[in-house]
Here is the input.
Amino acid sequence: MKFKKILSHITDIRSNKAIRKKILFTLWMLALYRLLVFVPVPFVDINKFIEILTNWWSAAAGTGLEFFSMLLGGTLDNFSIIWVWLAPYINASIIMQLLGTVIPHLEELQEQWEVGTNKIQQYTRRLSLPLAFMQSIGMVYFINSLLGGSMIDTGSFGIVLLSAFSLTVGSVIMIWIGELITEKGIANGTSLLIFASIISGLASQIYTSIAGAAGSGFEVAFVMFIIVIALVILSVFIIKTTKEIPVIYAKQGKVQQTAALPIPLNPVGMVPIIFAIAFITFPYLISQFVIKFGTPNIMVEQAAKRIELNFNIYSQQPAAPAIIVYFMLIVVFTFFYTVIVFNPDRMSDNIQKRGGFIQGIRPGTETAQYLNTIITHLCFWWGIGLGLVGIYSYVLYYLPFVDIITQSLGSLPVVVTGSGVIIIVWVIQDLINKVNSELDVQKYDKI
Here is the structure.
């Protein structure tokens, strides 16, 4: 019965011209993105770069840095002009959301719905440009020094600026593609580009894990399947779980329950993991620069070595301090960002202005306190769950029976991080919701 329903759903999609047009436009934009992956930054000897990078990846195997190549969809492997990717836009979006809590003008715009959202989007785009340029300059120096300093003539500041400019243009093109998909396509463009990057890098990572394992391909594939299925089930549970609070409204002299206020278990998405990664990455990257270029201060050098030893979250098996701090940062930022996104006082005011109330709770302060208690409770469990998802691939290596699996297979085939699986499930769910919404609109128009 369910199979027939799925076939009927597919038939409805194929017969819907508007949905077909949006899907085709989205596919064309994704194809353009994948073509840009193979356009290298100017002034780089790309053949020499690939040779050095291949040797460097072999030397860095097991450090966890290969996950970045997967998440960036191969842009690093080709020193692509879109290597800086959507990072400046994501950072700008986070900055604008944080500023919205301290700048009255931005707070007012957030309350103006579509008009305010469009204005904030303009500010975000403008902020993305200088962030992209600064990040591009840093990336040119960083990757050049990481690979021996022979890729780009960093002694010529003009060449550095032109290379950074090309990376900035690539990042702007990515932002443009993402917004076009959001406007004319079938899903959120930024999420879909991240999804496409993960999927495109996943195939090569799976092949490498299976080919390099000591056991049979079937054994490795089976272990991968079990891990991914467990993560998918957990991700679906997190995404689907909501707490619905019944709100009662007075209408025409009668008391009627007309709506429910849904509060999701996951109110802030993957932002806490992004924040946690940024905070735990910064001291590690600084320590790498100190160790590579040296320092006359012995204490600073010793501190850098301790940080490298204990806080390298990129390692396949990070030290316990790195895992613990990473987990705690995810939980802390879950609370921090939820406070920004969900304002119980504002929610209480909106309910009261519309003549509503929660049964057994007085409007105003008591309602705000009640909502704050619920959000805090959900936030705590979501923070714990997200933290466990974030560190699962690291914790596995500390479990005794994993050593047996590792010895039999040659390597533990954990090619997808928990956050990557959540993003994949999230985007697929969003696609399903958007398609269903389009079908419902078409059915409504025919009535």
Summary: Strands lie at 242-251, 254-264, 356-357.
